[in-house]
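Encode chain A's predicted structure.
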Amino acid sequence: MRKFLYLMFLIPLFVTSQGTDEYVVMENVMLTVIPSKTAEFEAGIAAHNKKYHAEGTHGARVYWVSNGKNAGKYIWAMGPLPWSAMDSRPAADGHDEDWSKNVVPYTTAESDVTYWRFHPKFSNFSNDFELKYLSVFMVDFKRFKYPEMISILERVTKVNMEKNPDETYGVYTNEMPDTADGRDMAFVNFFSNSGWMGREDTFPKKFEEVHGEGSFTKFLKDVEAATNGDRVELWSYRDDLSGLSATVNAQDRQ
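Encoded structure for chain A:
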């Protein structure tokens, strides 16, 4: 999957089978740190995650945003987990007090919480990998365009499965979309080297090899008719601040 896809469709994160009929979601909390309190914030959230979010369903990772309007902010990501597990999130052994005392005082009142539903049909976790960088592409779909969104995703998925079978990515939809924020769907690509960003975009060519001559032009028209816009953010995984490690096992993400 080349630059076009990243600039047209891309976000957290990882999903594992939960042994339940429930689908799973990621809880993403965006935190804005007081500039003069970065060291205190990082020490506090690192200790909190390693004590309360180091394993299992409620495990958490931290990412740092490197571009766009959210550059410099942190993403605290918990899960994947079914909605029912939200009721048993850590609360005992001083969890809430620790967060309030050692994390909150070093952040501003500006925050954002998003719940992303994972779609395994459109995702690919075929290989084990180590987290480093994420390219998170968020799309704003027009109202009542869900069927069109599915059609677009099906065509993109077919190209990826045939032409890029070893690439690792996840597709998510916002469980609580806001018409003002433009984040209805997210496509998250995981990579360890930024060199791909400087290479020629071959997605249009591959698309027509799979769907036929002239299909890419129609595809662009369908995208234009179904969406209001999009944006891309680059995130860096912060192992030092996370409870869960960088290792992602493919067999646990199917």
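Confidence is low (pLDDT under 50) at residues 2-20.
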